[in-house]
């Protein structure tokens, strides 16, 4: 399970806040990707509520020549919407879209408009600074490579005053393997000293 942490928990690219930020994690779990969020919003909606569906990747909106990049954990219901200038590095998503299923917890999403220096952050209806983000969803039959990421991918960006950072981190089994190797090495050294 490779956790792609969109470290919305860290304060990103010099943006500070009393509330921190949000973290998105993507884990490789068998043949699927598990996506989850944690942390808090630093902004409130500045646009009317809109529906949002679970998607990862890029899509081509009507009347536009460049695709929009999106990661969202949502079920199609109403979501709060905050828009603003986008700066920094968003994940290098592929020219296709993958559906996110099994969405639970709170809605989260972001979109980068590739035609303009513009983006959007989605969240629960009426979210405010300090609202907790704790969503989860599954991209079935997909790998990190499928969505344009590697185990060392990372970056940070902001949409207006909302900071977002992200990184791919090892799955828990990788830590177990590393700890097992350390334990074996320690046992070997102790035995050698005797």
UniProtKB/TrEMBL annotation:
Keywords for the protein's UniProt record, in alphabetical order: Signal
The keyword Methyltransferase is annotated on this UniProt entry: no
InterPro entries: Ice-binding_C
Pfam families named among the record's database cross-references: PEP-CTERM (PF07589)
Membrane-spanning ranges: none
Superkingdom of origin: Bacteria
Signal peptide span: 1-20
Domain Ice-binding protein C-terminal stretches: 169-191
Protein known as: PEP-CTERM sorting domain-containing protein
Organism: Oceanipulchritudo coccoides
